[in-house]
């Protein structure tokens, strides 16, 4: 662009304009100019060049810092949920270690994690596509596993209800909707609990039976438990699967093992 401006205000040839522009932008100073307008333009381009370098120096560490915070939580999730992560495996492991119903601090940390990615992944949108160093890890599958684990805990596991799990789910679906919406996807912000989700009743029943076989305490009214789980999942189901499809996330049960039932339309 500056090359064209130099040419327009009197630099004789495009080749000389390119040389002057490059010398000014990179502050090399090897190209000389004859008149005041050309010198003013050269100083302006040199200033922009310095500003661009300063922005790059500060911008890239900011992105890496946000990426590092995100990946630390994703890596730590493997301790509880395995690899590839699974909400069912997480609940079984918690049960074996007598930790069911004692996850308040865990839900609080992931509530903060969701708030963090909502801010960073919309202001620094490239982070959405930054893949984890480990091929089986993914921020979107980790988000789905935590949300499913919270939904199962509130709907199906027979433990005292933890309001922090509900807050974690709300923080999660708000973050996923904001990030998905940034890419122009449309979806309902007020889904009905009876709206269809990507999981079938048969899949839920299979998980219920699996947890029962491990002696995990479950609520006796399976029909009500299914309705409650469905009511939680419907809040993040479409946004979760859309992001998993968009980022080509690695395999994880109930997240990237299926295509979205109905991809939201993109805004024109």
Features:
single chain; 268 residues; mainly alpha; 10 helices; 63% helix; elongated; disordered C terminus
Structure write-up:
By secondary structure, the chain is mainly alpha-helical. Helix content is 63%, strand content 0%. The protein has ten helices and no strands. It has helices at 2-8, 14-25, 36-81, 87-96, 104-123, 139-155, 163-182, 201-213, 222-233, 237-247. The chain starts with a helix and ends in a 21-residue tail after the last helix.
Quick synopsis:
By secondary structure, this protein is mainly alpha-helical. Helices cover 63% and strands 0% of the residues.
Poorly predicted spans:
261-268
Beta fraction? under 5%
Structural class of the helix and strand makeup? mainly alpha
The whole-number mean of residue pLDDT values reads: 89
Principal-axes shape call: elongated
For the secondary structure, the number of strands is: 0
Question: In percent, how helical is the residue content?
Answer: 55-70%
Output the helix-strand order.
HHHHHHHHHH
Give the biggest sheet.
Answer: none
Radius of gyration from the CA trace?
26 Å
Distance from first to last alpha carbon:
29 Å
Count of DSSP H/I helices: 10
């Amino acid at each position: 662009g500056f090359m064209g401006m130099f040419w327009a205000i009197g630099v004789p040839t495009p080749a000389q304009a390119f040389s002057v522009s490059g010398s000014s932008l990179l502050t090399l100073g090897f190209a000389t100019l004859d008149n005041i307008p050309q010198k003013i333009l050269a100083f302006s381009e040199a200033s922009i060049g310095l500003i661009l370098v300063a922005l790059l120096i500060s911008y890239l560490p900011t992105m890496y810092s946000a990426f590092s915070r995100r990946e630390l939580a994703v890596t730590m999730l493997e301790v509880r949920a395995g690899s590839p992560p699974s909400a069912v495996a997480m609940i079984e492991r918690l049960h074996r270690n007598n930790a069911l119903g004692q996850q308040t601090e865990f839900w609080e940390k992931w509530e903060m994690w969701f708030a963090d990615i909502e801010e960073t992944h919309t202001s620094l949108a490239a982070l959405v596509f930054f893949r984890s160093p480990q091929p089986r890890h993914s921020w979107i599958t980790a988000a789905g596993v935590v949300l499913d684990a919270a939904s199962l805990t509130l709907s199906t596991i027979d433990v005292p209800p933890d309001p922090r799990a509900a807050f974690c789910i709300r923080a999660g679906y708000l973050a996923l909707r904001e990030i998905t919406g940034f890419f122009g996807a449309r979806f309902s912000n007020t889904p009905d609990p009876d709206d269809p989700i990507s999981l079938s009743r048969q899949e839920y029943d299979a998980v219920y039976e699996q947890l029962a076989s491990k002696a995990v305490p479950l609520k006796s009214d399976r029909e009500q438990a299914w309705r409650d789980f469905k009511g939680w999942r419907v809040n993040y189901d479409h946004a979760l699967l859309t992001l998993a499809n968009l980022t080509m996330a690695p395999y994880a049960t109930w997240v990237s093992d299926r295509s979205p039932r109905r991809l939201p339309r993109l805004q024109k």
